Every structure is written in structure tokens, then in C-alpha cells.
């Protein structure tokens, strides 16, 4: 067995071929901590299959498996990726790993070209829990042994994981109208995304360590729940806390309710939605709340117990049914509250009162009774055309005007400084050139290095045009020659 050179891969379609290559398959990765780069392709099997116990390979691919067949891979010690293609229903057995042990399979990826009708006898029943990640597209699965996964992805299909309690990194549900996730025991996720419309996911006290995103369709379809009989508008997202952001974007015709959510550590963002209502009745703490461009959706919704926030910004139709008391339990907003109401009848007086009590640090509200001598005009709503947006508010136009004035003054100051600076520089250059020319002229004269005589500091002599000075008229004595040697003075 040790002398066998492991083949790059094995392509099999029957149990007979598996048995024939058993020793060769087991030689791949034999005695090693990681498998050799080899694969097993199981193509169009027409019978049930059992892979050899102790198999260690890089990839296993199951393709075009005949319906209702059982693939038993419970003895496979290690595989990086299990690929399944066109495997609609049947039974898949993978290893069972104790809860205190690390899974030995990296991930399983299951993709079908079309969705099959969902009945219990037409699901893929998965036994075992050895893989860290599960990803399925256009398939329906029943998985009862998983308690922890690193990531779970379901697109256009059903996934039922009755024992799953924790998805440590990423949960992502991508809708078609028949997408549904059933996870009654799920209590913790890293990050969760619900994209597109799907049937309601029944949650029971979910804690999100990272961010929760609900986008592009609302996360739920507009039908009646077949189990509870409730209209989907009454669906409740039973989420307890969110460790980073809650993002709700581009949902339509839905009531989004989170009745037990108490805190959002970073931003609560609701944007670009239409004909929706929002309710966060137990939310007490959110760092930043931003709700903007939500057409036909009264804002903020139910925030009756909100106590603390860093900032709040509402832009849209602001609810008037509470007479302006939209945050009745507010205790402190550390930075600012900005209300840009599209409707002119929103009354700001309650918010103004909260600001005067020191609850709100800074307030801008463009409704009535906003504390100003003149009432700011309301901001018109956007059209239903998604390609257009609302006009700017009065405050925004005022900010733009101030910005333009500051910019113009800055340009004038810059131009003035530039002119004065260059004039000074030109004057300095002209002086330097004049001195250089003067020095050049001096250097061309002979004995130019001899310093010029200095003018004596003597009083002026008065000259007369008549008689010369007496000493000038005295007769001149001849000059006597003298010895140039030194003589002693008498």
C-alpha cells in the first residue's frame, strides 16, 4: 500500500467500481494529516453507494444522482469540499462529530439547475454534522444533526435545521417566493442577511453579534402563513440585540416589527422603502438612527421606549398621530435630532421642549412650532419614480448659500494675496537687478578694487575772487636736498 502512487482522481458510477479501487482510494492521504490533491467523482449512480471508511481526499463530487438514492460517506475522514450537482432528493450520510470536536469537512456546496416541488419525501435528508459550512441553491433539505455551522447559505429553496443553535460567521437567505429557513433553536449568529422575498423565518430570540440586513423585497412574501394563518404583514422578527448595524433597505408593502429588540450598537438605517410601517416598541438604545427616502411610510414608527441615542435623523412623512411626541421616553441624545418632514403639519413643539430640558443637545425641525419666529417650509416628498429624489430642505439651501458665500470670499482673498505677493516679488527682483548692473559697471574700471576716497569732514573754505592769501604771495624758497638718512634733531 505504501508503494502506491496516489492517482489524481477516481471517477466511479457504481459500488462495484468503488470496491475495485478501495485500496487505491485509501492510499491517498494514508498516514498523513492532510489528504493528497485528489478527487472522487461520482457520476450518475443508479444504485446506493458506500465510500470506503478512512477515505481522505481533497474533493468529492456527486452529480446526476438518481432520485431516492442513498450516498453513504459517513466513513470519509477528511474532505475539503463536497460538491453536489443535480441531486434532488435522497439520503446523504456524512460523519457525526461530537460537539467538543472540530468538524473534519470544510464545506458542502449543493446546486441544482431548477427547484423541485417541496414534499418531505422529495427532500435531501442529511444525516451527520461533519461539515463547517453548508450552501444550497434550488434544493430542499432536512438536516437534523447540525448544532453549529460557520456559515449557512440558502437560495431559492427550503432548509430545515431543527437542532441548529449557532451560525458563528454568516447566515444568508436569498429569496424566491419558495425560500424558507426553519431554525427553531437558532439563538446566535455572526452576521445575517435576508435578501429578496421569502417565506417567514421563525426566529425565537436571536442575538446578532455583527450586522443584520433585510433588503430588496422585505425578507417576506405577501402571502398568508400556512401554519399560523397570520397575514405576512403581521410577521415579527424576534431579534433580541444587534452588535453592529441594522440595515433595512428597499422593502415594499410590509409591516416590519421587531417586538423584543432592545439595542442596536451602531446604526439603525431604514431607507428607500415604500408603503411600509416599522415598529421597535422595546428598543431602548441605538447609537445612530437614520430613516430617509421611505415613500408612503410614516416615520419613525413605534419607538415608544427609546431612551438613548447619539443622533436621530428622519427624512420623510413624519407621523402626526402622536401630536409630535414621537420619542416619549427619550432621556438623552448626545449629538443632534434632525427632522426633515415632507408634510407641513408636523408639530415640533414636543421636541423643542425636550431640547430645552437638556434631553436633546441640538435640534433642527422644519415643522410648525419649532421655536423660530418664522416657520421653515416643509420639504416636498419624492415621486414614486425610483430614479428621482426629494428637493433639498430649507436648512440644506441655507447651508448651500453660506457655503457659496464663504467660497467666494475665499477666492477674492486668494486673488488679492496673489497680486500683492507677486508685486512685492517683482519689486525685489528689480532692485536686485539694479544692484547687479551697478556692480558690473564698477568691475570694468581700472583699479576698481581700490576703495574710493572718502570725503573729509571739514568745514567749507570761503574763497575770495580778489587777493590771494598772503602765504600764496610769499617768494618761493629753493628746495634743499637732504640726506635721506636719519639725523638727530638739534
Brief write-up:
This protein is an alpha/beta fold and 490 residues long.
Give a written overview of the molecule.
This protein is of the alpha/beta class and 490 residues long. Helices cover 15% and strands 33% of the residues. It contains 5 helices and 27 strands. The protein has helices spanning 15-20, 22-27, 349-356, 394-443, 470-473; strands at residues 9-12, 39-43, 49-50, 56-63, 69-72, 78-85, 90-93, 105-111, 124-127, 131-137, 140-143, 148-155, 158-160, 166-174, 180-182, 188-195, 206-208, 212-215, 239-242, 246-249, 255-257, 263-271, 277-279, 285-299, 308-318, 332-341, 360-365. It has a 7-stranded parallel beta sheet, with no helix packed on it. A 6-stranded parallel barrel has the order 16-17-19-22-20-18. The chain has a two-stranded parallel sheet with strand order 21-23. Helix 3 links the parallel strand 26 (332-341) and strand 27. It is flat and about 100 Å long.
Strand portion:
25-35%
Poorly predicted tracts of residues: 30-35, 229-233, 373-379, 384-390, 444-490
Please count the helical segments: 5
Biggest β-sheet, characterized?
7 strands, parallel
| Oligomeric state of the chains present here | single chain
Number of strands: 27
The Cα radius of gyration reads 45 Å
Overall morphology: flat
Separation of the first and last Cα atoms:
139 Å
Amino acid at each position: 500500500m505504501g508503494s502506491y502512487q496516489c492517482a489524481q482522481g477516481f471517477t466511479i458510477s457504481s459500488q462495484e467500481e468503488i470496491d475495485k479501487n478501495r485500496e487505491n482510494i485509501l492510499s491517498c492521504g494514508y498516514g498523513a494529516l492532510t489528504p493528497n490533491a485528489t478527487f472522487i467523482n461520482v457520476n450518475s449512480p443508479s444504485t446506493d453507494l458506500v465510500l470506503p471508511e478512512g477515505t481522505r481526499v481533497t474533493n468529492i463530487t456527486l452529480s446526476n444522482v438518481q432520485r431516492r438514492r442513498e450516498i453513504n460517506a459517513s466513513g470519509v475522514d477528511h474532505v475539503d469540499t463536497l460538491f453536489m450537482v443535480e441531486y434532488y432528493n435522497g439520503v446523504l450520510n456524512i460523519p457525526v462529530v461530537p460537539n467538543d470536536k472540530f468538524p473534519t469537512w470544510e464545506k458542502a456546496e449543493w446546486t441544482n439547475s431548477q427547484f423541485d416541488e417541496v414534499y418531505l419525501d422529495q427532500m435531501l435528508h442529511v444525516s451527520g454534522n461533519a461539515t463547517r459550512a453548508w450552501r444550497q441553491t434550488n434544493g430542499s433539505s432536512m438536516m437534523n444533526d447540525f448544532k453549529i455551522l460557520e456559515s449557512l447559505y440558502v437560495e431559492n429553496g427550503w432548509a430545515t435545521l431543527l437542532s441548529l443553535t449557532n451560525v458563528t460567521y454568516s447566515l444568508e437567505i436569498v429569496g424566491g417566493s419558495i425560500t424558507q429557513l426553519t431554525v427553531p433553536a437558532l439563538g446566535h449568529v455572526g452576521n445575517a442577511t435576508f435578501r429578496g422575498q421569502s417565506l417567514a423565518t421563525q426566529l425565537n430570540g436571536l442575538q446578532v453579534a455583527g450586522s443584520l440586513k433585510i433588503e430588496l423585497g422585505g425578507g417576506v412574501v405577501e402571502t398568508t402563513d400556512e401554519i399560523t394563518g397570520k397575514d405576512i404583514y403581521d410577521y415579527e422578527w424576534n431579534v433580541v440585540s444587534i452588535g453592529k448595524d441594522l440595515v433595512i433597505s428597499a422593502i415594499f408593502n410590509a409591516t416590519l416589527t421587531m417586538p423584543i429588540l432592545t439595542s442596536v450598537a451602531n446604526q439603525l438605517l431604514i431607507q428607500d422603502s415604500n408603503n411600509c410601517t416599522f415598529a421597535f416598541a422595546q428598543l431602548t438604545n441605538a447609537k445612530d438612527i437614520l430613516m430617509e427616502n421611505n415613500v408612503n411610510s410614516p416615520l419613525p414608527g413605534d419607538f415608544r421606549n427609546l431612551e438613548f441615542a447619539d443622533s436621530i435623523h428622519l427624512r420623510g412623512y413624519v407621523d402626526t398621530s402622536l401630536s409630535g411626541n414621537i420619542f416619549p421616553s427619550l432621556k438623552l441624545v448626545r449629538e443632534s435630532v434632525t427632522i426633515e418632514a415632507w408634510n407641513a403639519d408636523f408639530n415640533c413643539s414636543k421636541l423643542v421642549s425636550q431640547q430645552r430640558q437638556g434631553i436633546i443637545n441640538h435640534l433642527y425641525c422644519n415643522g410648525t412650532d419649532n421655536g423660530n419666529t418664522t416657520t421653515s417650509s416643509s420639504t416636498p416628498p419624492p415621486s414614486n419614480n425610483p430614479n428621482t429624489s426629494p428637493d433639498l430642505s430649507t436648512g440644506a439651501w441655507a447651508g448651500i448659500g453660506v457655503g457659496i458665500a464663504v467660497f467666494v470670499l475665499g477666492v477674492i482673498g486668494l486673488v488679492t494675496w496673489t497680486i500683492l505677493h507677486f508685486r512685492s516679488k517683482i519689486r525685489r527682483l528689480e532692485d536686485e537687478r539694479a544692484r547687479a548692473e551697478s556692480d558690473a559697471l564698477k568691475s570694468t574700471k581700472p583699479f576698481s578694487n581700490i576703495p574710493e576716497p572718502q570725503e573729509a569732514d571739514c568745514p567749507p573754505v570761503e574763497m575770495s575772487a580778489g587777493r590771494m592769501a598772503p602765504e600764496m604771495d610769499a617768494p618761493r624758497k629753493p628746495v634743499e636736498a637732504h640726506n635721506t638718512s636719519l639725523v638727530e634733531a638739534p
